[in-house]
Every structure is written in C-alpha cells, then in structure tokens.
Amino acid sequence: MLRRTIRVTYKVARRIAVGVVGTTVVLLGVALLVLPGPALIVIPAGLAILALEFAWARRWLRIARERSQQALELIGVGKRARTQSRKLSSS
Predict the structure, then answer these.
(1) What is the number of alpha carbons within 13 Å of residue 12 lying toward its C-beta?
(2) Maximum CA pair distance of the chain?
(3) Could you tell me which residues come within 8 angstroms of residue 78 by beta carbon, excluding any fewer than 6 positions away?
(4) Residues 6+ apart with CB under 8 A from 26
(5) Measured between alpha carbons, how far is 10 from 17 in angstroms, rounded to an integer?
(6) Taking the domains of the chain in order of start, what are their residue ranges?
(7) Is-contact 25 45, C-beta < 8 A?
(8) How many CB atoms lie within 10 A of CB 24?
(9) Nearest to residue 24, comparing CAs of 51, 52, 49, 61?
(10) Choice between 27 and 1, residue whose per-residue pLDDT is larger
(11) Mind listing the pLDDT tens digit for each residue in 26-78?
(12) What's the rounded Cα separation, in Å, for the pair 74 and 80?
C-alpha cells in the first residue's frame, strides 16, 4: 500500500514538474518572439520537455519538425536539397 502511494505520488510530482518547467520554457520562447533571442530554438526545446510526459506535446513537436523540414526544403536547405546539390557537384 505504501509503495503504491509513493509510486503514484512520484508520477504525479514528475508530471507536475515537467509541466511547470516545460510551460515556463515555452512561455519564455514566446516572449523571445518579440524580445531579442532565439525563440525558434527555445519553443521547440520547451515542447520537447513537455513531450516527456504529454502526448499532445509529442504531436505538436512532430508537426513542428515536419513543417520546419518542409520550410528548409522550400528555401533549399533541407535534406533533399543537400542530397541534390551533392549529386550536382559530383557530376
């Protein structure tokens, strides 16, 4: 009984701690959108922290990765563009 209570308490405490830290980092990143700073690095870092415990954060992080990869490919910096430039330079 005591072990179960400790285990449940630990899980709840961990979830709360991850939620507080992750939310704080995301909010800091949002503030950095208007303040000078690396908002586009801090916001995904906060989502990664939240993704440790929350499925919705994992989904948002996956979507953000996919969209950032698409944006990089659109401007010619993505994985496909690098592969194509290697093929062109070796020809």
Answers:
(1) 6
(2) 70
(3) 69, 70, 72
(4) 42, 43, 46, 47, 50
(5) 10
(6) 2-90
(7) yes
(8) 12
(9) 49
(10) 27
(11) 999 999 999 999 999 999 999 999 999 999 999 999 999 999 899 888 888 76
(12) 10
H-assigned helices in the chain? 2-31, 39-51, 55-75, 79-90
Q: The pTM is what?
A: 0.73
Q: What is the token pair recorded at 88?
A: 């062109």
Six-digit token string for 3: 């072990």
> What number of other Cβ atoms are within 10 A of residue 84's Cβ?
12
Task: Kindly report which listed range (4-13, 21-30, 51-60) carries the lowest average pLDDT score.
Answer: 4-13
Stated length of the chain = 91
